[in-house]
Write a structure and sequence with these properties.
Length: 585
Amino acid sequence: MSKKHTEKKQFETVLKYFKKYKRYLIGGLISVVLSNCLILIMPYISKLIFDALKNNEPSSVILNYVLLSVGAAVLSGLFRFFMRRTIIWMSRYIEYDLRNEIFGHLIQMSPSFYHQTRTGDLMARMTNDLEAVRQMVGPGVMYISDTILKLTISFAFMFYLSTSLTLYAIIPLVVLPLAVNKIGNMVHSRSMKVQEKFSELTSNAQENLAGIRVVKAYCQEENEVAHFSTLSKMYIKLNMSLAKLQGVFVPTMRLFASLSYLTVFYFGGLQVIKGNLSLGDIVAFFGYLSMILWPVIAIGWVTSLYQRGKASLERINKILHSNSPVADTETATYEQQMLGKIEFRNLSFAYNGSKVLKNINLTINPGQMVGLVGKTGSGKSTIAALLTKLFKVQTGQLFIDDVDINNWKLDSLRQQIGFATQEPFLFSDTVRENIRYGKADATEIEIQLASDIAALKKDIQTFQDGFDTVVGERGITLSGGQKQRTAIARAIIGKPSILILDDATSAVDTETEHQINEKITTVLNGRTSLIISHRVSSVKDADIILYLEDGAVAEQGTHEELIANNGYYAELYKSQLLEEELEQL
Ligand code: ADP
């Protein structure tokens, strides 16, 4: 692929939005042209006024010139307003659309993507990079068109007035865009460092305050204060170095601008004395010179906006072009009511080459309750993850209702599977909304029922605001068991065809767990459930129990059969019975 083609492809991300908002772009560019044409005739009018004064023309002529000048200034200002009103608005719309596009894409990505990418980096894409792209497509586009036009017209007038003076004026100005670009990039990289340090500082404070109990329990207050103070000092230092650079910026601009002015003063003055130029000419010349100063500075500034914007766009594109391995393909069209039959056929699975499931063959019929036990790391959660299509099946096949899981439409599949895990994620919202997350249109009665089944209702009654209690960030105001039961209520509220509880009651006492299981069994009537647990008591009543050892099904049968078998399961059962007895002593 040629470089040009790759670059074009890269800019496609924003080009489609330029097309969408082309009326703003065209309106903006027309405003740029009109505003410049009007403002740029003003120095020429000044020349005419001076020449008219010199030639003792009647005051009415001069008044006309003045009125013309005022009119041009007002109209030019109006078009400048429209220029910003259109192009900057367009950039805000593009930013809005692009932010939604990025977030929409991120939310589709599979867990493996999040294992490889830090959340902080993704946040940076959504904030800093997005802002850099906005600056490129908004102010960048606006100033470059303004600059090109202003420079072209001004130089034309300046050359017309005096070629030699124009060349003298340009010499000091050539350095200006180069200096602006260099200093601009340095300012940018230093302010990025300031931002990074600031986010390190705030996350350090946040972590310490959130984990205040640990800090106190380990008497780490002094150490933490010292660490915070070091970070804070580094932050101040970076800020000072940024301020120093910003301090250099303006005087540098002024220096080169003044040099240009002085050169014109000297050589222009000489020419006026010699009579080669009129006073009007030199006044007009200064007028144009003052007008090109900002565009000359803008060249350097816009170049750095473009460089930054392009680099940010590359990073954003990386996200937008990375596809989720489980995203719906053309054949993933199946979206029927799920009956709940599950079949694993010679299924093996590996994370980054290390095998965690080995040749699993298993059929679960609709309505069966299946228990899955085994040591930590034996592959139980991976089975649950494959069933919810969080990862793509690699070797062998997985069928749901005799349909290959790859052919199920992702949304339809996930809507019909309820899933609760050991470490549930609760949003900082009310208990009610956290439960409703499992079924957007759930009625109050359904919410009450789900919380009753999850043995959560009694707890909620003790909360000050009942179902309206806000659970705090990640549910920190709830106990581990309450969080798990909220997640169970969320998983069952949509009456899923398959319910997966992945160690979802590990923080719930055995008695409450038994109650939950009993209620679930009656409510799930005819639905399939997969109960993953490290506790035998959680799976005892299952229709089949699978014992997973090192990624393979080592034992399979009912509780009684497996006890009689006297294998791994019986061993686990005995050790847990012994633990219970010891606890009761
Ligand atoms: P269990 O639920 O039985 O504890 P898991 O299915 O969670 O077992 O894990 C099986 C193995 O796969 C473990 O060795 C674990 O470290 C590894 N594993 C789990 N998830 C990932 C992942 N996202 N990336 C890499 N390895 C993983």
